[in-house]
Amino acid sequence: MTGGGAQAGRRRLTARVSASTPGNSVGRLSWPFPKPQDWSAFAGVSFWYRSLDDGSPHPFHLIVSEKKRLSYRCPVSPRPRMAGQWQQVAVPFSGMAWSWEGAEDPDHTFNREYMTGIHFDFAAAPGVDRRFALDDLSLYKPQVPYSGPQLILDSDRYLADPGDPMRCRVSATGLPSGIRAVAEVRVRDCTGRSVREARLLFRGSPDGSDPPQTIAFTGRGYYDMEGVLRVAGRPA
After folding, report:
1. pTM for the full model?
2. Which of 37, 218, 227, 184 is nearest to 118 (CA)?
């Protein structure tokens, strides 16, 4: 491994992982903790990942170790379309399953109060290195479910022949009664070109229902919809 460092409990490094023994198909990057850590207040591990090899990112396993040498692992599959780019990865503890490595866990219960280390396992054929970069390795806490206004974009289909008439439904939900909001919506074709832009006004009703609105445009292959809902001038 080359480079690296630690600051405020977070690790940053560029690494090269190889199979550790002849015939082994796994390369491991490990950080044993000097003292056990209590992770019970956190929901998972978050980090930024970038593949430094040609081609797609490499799937790997994130493994955490707790007391009694028990290990829990979760498969991680970075997005292939972002090969060579930084991408944020969040691994929830709810996705962890007991690993066959280490001691047998009689009840298969992940105990986060006594963590002893964290490991990354990459498939690495003998003689073939896996090169990647990690940044901002940290723990994250459970998120409070969002219950405010939301913008919903919907359509019956996302692929059209050239010249086909297309329609996109736009809804604003969760608006307090009497509160106005503006939806700024843009439709792009498969080349990223903007084919339709619209500003739609919504107003919250006492029963929380505001009828959806429709914007029309001419189809041309695949298209994407994006938008922002501004409530009292601020994005919701």
Report:
1. 0.54
2. 37
